[in-house]
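re: ur question from earlier - yeah i can do the single chain one, its not a big deal. heres the input i used so u can compare w yours
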Amino acid sequence: MLEDSVANHYCATDVERNCSEALIYGTNDEFLLGLPVEALRTMGPFGGGMRIESICGAITGALAVIGVLYNRDNPTERDRMKEIAERFLSEFKNRYGCLECLCLKDKYRDEKKKCEPVVRMSARLLEEIIKVEESRRQFEKE
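and the output i got, formated as tokens:
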């Protein structure tokens, strides 16, 4: 389950990972993406709402995953990737009320678990969207 894999990376005791890193590392593990460590490390600056409490790192991490999974050179596929990203953003905001780190921390951060609830929310939605997209692709192949 993606949510647990992502949370495990966020809560890891051996390496401190931010929300954005947790999403990319956890998804890489769960879906066996085989991303090189350099690609995973690119998400470091996006934690803490890009360090300025802007768009939440759990959201930017999920968007990075959408890019890895669905961004292709074909213009039609690129347009589809953009639609998937927009769906993720829209649904996240509808469910949780905002996209900004500061707002999400105010609403969901727990002193003990820190931002783990937000990381789990993002992973849960990301997995839902991936499942819908994969079902759609299977249907189109038939």
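Residues 10 and 139 are 35 Å apart (CA to CA). not sure if urs matches, ping me
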